[in-house]
Amino acid sequence: MDCSQIRLLYLAHYAPARIDSPLPTGIKDRVYAEYHHKVFNVLSTLFPLITSSNDPSIVLHKNPPFDYIFSLYNRMPFRNSEVFISAVAEYHQIAYLGARPNIRALAEDKHLAKMMARYAGVPTPKWKTYGVGELPSPPDFDPPYFCKPRFGAASLGIDDSSACDSWEKAYKKIMQLHSLKMDVILEEQIRGVYHTSPVLNNFGNSLFLPCIAQYSTNKNGIVTYEQKRKIAPGLTRTIVSDLSLQKRIQAYSGKMFSLVQPLDYTRFDYIVDDISGEPHFLEFNVCCNLGEHSTVSQAANSIGISYHELIENITYASMYRQGLLNCNMGKQF
After folding, report:
1. pTM for the structure as a whole
2. Are strands 8-11 and 50-53 parallel, antiparallel or unpaired?
3. Which residues lie across from 51 on neighbouring strands?
4. Ramachandran category for residue 83: left, alpha or beta (phi over 0 → left; psi -120 to 50 → alpha)
5. pLDDT tens across 130-143, in order?
């Protein structure tokens, strides 16, 4: 199928109606709006038959007139919404960006993701889960603990109080998250630096991009939702210069990447122990940020891949994987 004939639906919270649509005003996460507009601008140069929408219900119409769905919707205001677009696309038999609903669900559940890591032989902190309505009891490992929502991404629900040096503090944090209707995962806290390992499908020839270290000025180096959305300051990211450490992280990522196929792009997150230097897997993200200032873009740019080339590669590789394209269009890295 020729790209000029592919009817592409672009879905994002801040998806613009047209190229010249202004950015929304009065919002905190303006950087995200800029991100969604930028991706639309890139896709518009590749696919003339593009439809842009910020309303996910557009896919609920009978026989939606699209060949491919490029969705950046990570969350919507209902439980387990992360799998919504992929599940509906499967129902309509329309190709789409990302991964199948079962893989997407695995990524959104930090408990199941850690079970996968343990199966793959990848180190991960000890953990225990606490469902909403459950009376919390202490885990079988000692503090310090790290307490966060079991489901979701972008560090939502994480702040300084997530680091708990006693069971009493952990209990308080668990109950706070439960009051927000959030199930909880309590981890053994590893003191160290957060690292991330982006991976591209790259037309079936997996490309492990350079790893990135993330440094936060917050207490315990905690990276918050507001920092990731660039609403709050204090987060810096650098390309990992320790090639031995990068090789070890990428080897762990490779073990897990092979278990979550088919998948278009992802990011595996770790914390590297300050004392032992050992990376410990935390989670992975199927719909990670593809903005110009994201870790994926930063890692790609560090090896000479432009932002436009990155979006082209991810989109064309996804279409090739699902049979919309019969060649790599010269976009394989």
Report:
1. 0.94
2. parallel
3. 9
4. alpha
5. 999 999 999 999 99
